[in-house]
């Protein structure tokens, strides 16, 4: 094992490194001040009438300045590369952002720059020109306290170089939100972070293999290498819920990226969810066949005209015959988005009127055509053959009117499925209808048929295994020309509509040719715990290989049968309060309020996730409903009554797998009832 050097390093060496850090910090401060002062003068001095441009200019300047703020607890560099003489013999400090001195000489190289790749990938087998790799250790307040050298050519090989730092970094007690991993990105992760922008990348990874971390670092990398391309419509990160987003929200800013949208699918779709669906209904609504049903339902509103158009101007009556109107409507029906088609019908009708005007010797211009297109008779005709509709009106009709549903569904849905879809007690109007999460995706599909949505250049989709085909389509339409990074774990799929495998999901996302990669080295969860959780795999994801942990932690797993469940939870939490780090108490959603109350009564000051999105920061003891545990992690986890977690939902075993894989250092499983069958035997020793 490589030993951190400070004990025997010459004092002058570490002093020299600290002095270098101070110099780099001063230089960054000067870069920040330059943006704020110099460029402000330019803006103020500018006599620019275009207010919008000025606002944007100031906005981008502020972003640039924000990106250059020296965050007090974030080390400015974390590594150093000394190249051998054959490769120029240069020395580079690798850090979170580029820093240069007053004359432009680089002091710190951005970790995303091509030269930094060697920091993550060079090895003794393939040194890539690197003679020596140095990694630094820092205190909580970002003071440089240690360094560790790894010669890659000549000298003595340092066994497990980097492993000690990696383990120390993972095991460093957590408090609050997720941290970046920029100093210790592993070679297999780096390959994914730096994958080219053009390809859609799909990463299947066991719990804790770093998928979320890879996704976020990839965003930072792509923005660095393709800022221009991504600058038009930007990048979005889509996560499973707001608690998760709150948990990851600091990672990109610490990497210098302050302008990335982080959202949930529901928020991206942007429709209020006020109702719920039973699982079987949600499954049908989420199914990709619904796209065809909705398409027919919308276009069923366009009908054959019963009569032609009569447009009166002065004493003249201009007529467009019914068969001509029919032709116009038929030629446009279904060829464009619904609203665009409606506008085009109006223009074509107006054009037909104009032709008649010209025949009578008039010389109408574009303004006349626009006036005819907006005129009352044209509008009345349009309202009858191509009426204005909202997505809500169409879906309301579809879910409330059996005959309409049958017509739109044709053979895409069975009679049974249609019966399930139909509202038992429809609301009085579409305005008072209660829409579920699944309805939101259907409304979004309809909205897309009516009008084009706002788009992005790249979207990272985390926990993608839970998306329904219809939600995939909602995401896909927001990135029609860009690429995706899709992250997830089929074994953690808990939604009723989850797809079977990645190819099926990628098909719905419109990227069947995506590059599929697997991460199987788990960093979060020690082997003792992951092996225990993996007993569920044959039941929940028989095709997936067992995850491999990068760490062992003897004594990390305790499974205890108790009589007084609440008492036992309190006891374990008290015990955990004596050691550093975060503690997550995870139980079936229905049981959690009781547990939370009891812990509060005992004076343990827990926070409650769900009620408080920032609960992870509010207290070091967090009560977590099982349905919100996905993507989160704690130093210690108390998993309460697994059988109730399993019983709470149809994919309860998948949920339990998620719950059991949240711990970094200790997992306490407490149960009064028998454990679910796959966990029944004693855990392996160790
Ligand atoms: N290279 C690394 N260096 C240090 N820590 C790492 C590294 N890779 C992953 N980790 C840590 O491991 C933990 C798990 O990472 P992450 O949440 O990204 O995994 P995940 O695959 O998304 O997990 P899940 O499927 O459970 O959501 C985090 O604490 C992360 O910081």
UniProtKB/TrEMBL annotation:
Superkingdom per UniProt: Bacteria
The biological process GO terms on file are: recombinational repair
Q: Per the database record, which ranges form the UvrD-like helicase ATP-binding domain? A: 184-526
What Pfam families is this protein classified in?
Answer: AAA_19 (PF13245)
Entry-linked PROSITE patterns: UVRD_HELICASE_ATP_BIND (PS51198)
**GO MF terms, alphabetically ordered:** 3'-5' DNA helicase activity; ATP binding; DNA binding; hydrolase activity
Residues the record lists as binding ATP: 205-212
Q: Which UniProt keywords apply?
A: ATP-binding, Helicase, Hydrolase, Nucleotide-binding
What are the GO cellular component annotations?
A: cytosol
Entry-linked PANTHER family: DNA 3'-5' HELICASE (PTHR11070:SF45), UVRD / RECB / PCRA DNA HELICASE FAMILY MEMBER (PTHR11070)
Under what name is this protein listed? DNA helicase IV
């Amino acid at each position: 094992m490589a030993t951190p050097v400070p004990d025997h390093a010459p004092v002058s060496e570490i002093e020299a490194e600290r002095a270098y850090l101070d110099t780099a910090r001063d230089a960054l401060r000067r870069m920040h001040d330059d943006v704020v002062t110099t460029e402000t003068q330019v803006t103020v001095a500018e006599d620019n009438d275009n207010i919008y441009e000025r606002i944007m200019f100031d906005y981008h300047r502020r972003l640039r300045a924000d990106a250059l703020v020296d965050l007090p607890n974030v080390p400015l560099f974390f590594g150093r590369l000394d190249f051998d003489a054959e490769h120029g013999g240069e020395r580079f400090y690798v850090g979170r952002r580029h820093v240069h001195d007053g004359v432009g000489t680089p002091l710190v190289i951005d970790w995303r720059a091509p030269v930094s790749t060697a920091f993550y990938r060079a090895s003794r087998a393939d040194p890539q020109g690197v003679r020596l790799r140095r990694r630094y250790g820092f205190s909580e307040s970002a003071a440089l306290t240690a360094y560790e050298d790894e010669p890659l050519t000549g000298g003595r090989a340092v066994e497990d170089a980097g492993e000690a730092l990696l383990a120390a970094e993972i095991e460093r007690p957590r408090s609050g939100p997720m941290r970046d991993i920029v100093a210790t990105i592993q070679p297999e992760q780096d390959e994914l972070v730096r994958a080219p922008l053009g390809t859609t990348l799909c990463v299947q990874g066991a719990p804790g293999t770093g998928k979320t971390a890879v996704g976020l670092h990839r965003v930072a990398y792509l923005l660095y290498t393709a800022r221009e391309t991504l600058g038009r419509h930007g990048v979005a990160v889509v996560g499973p819920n707001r608690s998760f987003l709150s948990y990851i929200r600091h990672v990109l800013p610490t990497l210098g990226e302050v302008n990335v949208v982080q959202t949930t699918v529901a928020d991206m779709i942007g429709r209020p969810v006020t109702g719920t669906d039973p699982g079987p209904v949600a499954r049908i609504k989420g199914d990709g066949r619904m796209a065809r049903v909705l398409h027919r339902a919308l276009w069923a509103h366009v009908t054959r005209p019963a009569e032609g158009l009569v447009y009166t101007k002065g004493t003249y009556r201009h007529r467009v015959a019914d068969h001509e109107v029919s032709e116009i409507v038929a030629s446009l029906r279904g060829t464009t988005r619904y609203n665009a088609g409606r506008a085009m019908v109006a223009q074509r009708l107006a054009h037909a009127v104009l032709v008649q005007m010209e025949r009578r010797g008039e010389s109408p211009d574009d303004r006349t055509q626009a006036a005819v297109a907006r005129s009352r008779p044209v509008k009345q005709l349009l309202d009858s053959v191509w009426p204005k509709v909202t997505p809500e009106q169409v879906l309301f009709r579809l879910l409330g009117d059996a005959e309409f549903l049958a017509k739109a569904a044709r053979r895409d849905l069975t009679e049974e499925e249609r019966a399930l879809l139909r509202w038992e007690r429809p609301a009085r109007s579409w305005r008072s209808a209660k829409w579920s999460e699944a309805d939101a995706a259907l409304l979004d599909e309809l909205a897309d048929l009516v009008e084009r949505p706002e788009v992005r250049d790249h979207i990272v989709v985390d926990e993608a295994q839970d998306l329904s085909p219809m939600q995939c389509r909602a995401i896909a339409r927001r990135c029609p020309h860009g690429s995706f990074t899709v992250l997830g774990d089929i074994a953690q799929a808990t939604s009723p509509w989850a797809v079977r495998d990645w190819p099926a999901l990628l098909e719905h996302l419109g990227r069947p040719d995506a590059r599929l990669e697997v991460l199987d080295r788990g960093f979060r969860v020690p082997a003792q715990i992951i092996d225990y959780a993996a007993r569920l795999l044959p039941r929940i994801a028989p095709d997936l290989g067992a995850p491999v942990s990068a760490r062992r932690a003897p004594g990390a797993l305790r499974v205890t049968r108790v009589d007084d469940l609440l008492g036992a939870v309190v006891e374990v939490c008290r015990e955990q309060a004596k050691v550093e780090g975060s503690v997550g108490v995870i139980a079936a959603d229905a049981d959690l309020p009781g547990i939370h109350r009891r812990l509060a009564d005992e004076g343990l000051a827990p926070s409650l996730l769900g009620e408080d999105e920032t609960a992870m920061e509010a207290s070091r003891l967090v009560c977590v409903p099982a349905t919100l545990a996905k993507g989160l992690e704690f130093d210690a986890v108390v998993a309460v009554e697994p059988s109730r977690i399993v019983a709470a939902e149809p994919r309860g075993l998948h949920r339990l797998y998620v719950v059991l894989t949240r711990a970094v250092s200790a997992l306490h499983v407490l149960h009064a009832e028998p454990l679910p069958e796959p966990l029944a035997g004693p855990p392996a020793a160790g």
